[in-house]
Fructose-1,6-bisphosphatase class 1
Amino acid sequence: MQELINDIQKAVIEISKELRYLKDFDYTTSQNATGDNQLKLDVKSDEIITRILKQSKGVKSLISEEKQEQLLINENEKYVVAYDPLDGSSLVDVNFAIGSIFAIYEQKASAKNLKAAVYAIYGVRLELIVCIDTPKLFRLNENDEFAFVKDLKLNEKGKLNASGGTQKNWSNIHRAFIKALFDEGYRLRYSGAMVSDLHQILLKGGGLFSYPATTDAPNGKLRAYFEVFPFAFIFEKAGGLSTNGKNNSLLDLEFEKIHASTPCFLGSKYEIEKLKQAYKGL
Ligand code: P6P
């Protein structure tokens, strides 16, 4: 596992260098499996990760937001790595923080087989969160090495509310719930890059990130295997909770399709329990 994580570190350092002096902000003429328009940078980031992880010890197959199908590497190895190579890439033109998200499954991509979750955040600094038992924050130093900073933990309750999805397409129950949090004094923190919005809640100690079912996206927007499950794993290991609005944990969900999406709510205990109460009526 450590060798695989070391190789993920190499990939994200290379992607961060691509971002730093980026010249070509154009889109390709293609779309990914979810129908998102692909930036040339999305494809380049996927190529960097694929090249490095193909050589990495222990990799059985790769699942990527930018690949239509699962890519078999070595049937005799044990880790299935599912990743979003550049989450929030549509914000690269406005220089917002974006990231890469990795879920490491044993033998088969399934939430119950999830053994580690890793994400990089390309912001003012390059930082990496590695979670096997506890989410650990690492920061790239002057020698291009990731130095450990601290373990991350969520408080019982936070102050931040990252409310995703097109508001005119929210259910009335969701609209009333989000308003109730703002009426309690929560502050809106939403950039449009889940990796950054969830990182902020994790580092600030708590709050709620929500991307609900909407009339235009009844199964939500965020992809289970390489966006939702890794963050649910991290948030629950940090002492928080996750749900699809009806269940006890996003990690109880199973999907056949590798690009399946799900409504998702991740945060501190207080906010998730409050949401589950509100959603009882849905
Ligand atoms: P919306 C980025 O494209 C992304 O996949 C997530 O990182 C982000 O949380 C979400 O989509 C934003 O979606 O509908 O709010 O623009």
